[in-house]
Amino acid sequence: MKISRLKRGDEVVSSLNRIVEKMEGGLVLGIGALDSARLKIYNLETKTYLEKEFTGPLEVAGFMAIIAKNPEGKSELHPHITVCDTNFNSSGGHLAEAQVGATFEYAILESDEEISRYHDAEIGLNLIKEGDNE
User: Fold this and answer.
1) Mean pLDDT computed over every residue of the chain
2) Widest distance between CA atoms in the chain
3) How far is CA 66 from the centre of its chain?
4) What is the C-alpha to C-alpha distance for residues 105 and 123, in angstroms, rounded to an integer?
């Protein structure tokens, strides 16, 4: 397991994607504070994302991402987050991007086996291949 942090001003998703690019698969957990975040929620009927921008200060109540190889063979995150604003209202969804406020602390649990995704045309998303890690 690797535990570290991102610094104020770092972009969370691109920074973590650079860190995990050589990994076969795994899991990332995180906590911290953000200045801003853009979240997405997938609409299965239209196969499109609804997006919403949030500005801080935001507290990261929970962050989880699966590391897997995309259909092109590149390792990347599938990140989800719950953030809380100064009124203690929470919002969550797929994290598109976020700017670190005070800090973003993370733990990476790397898999010994490759985790890969394929594009499912019916769903419209890249899904983990059945049988991976069974």
Assistant:
1) 95
2) 43
3) 7
4) 33
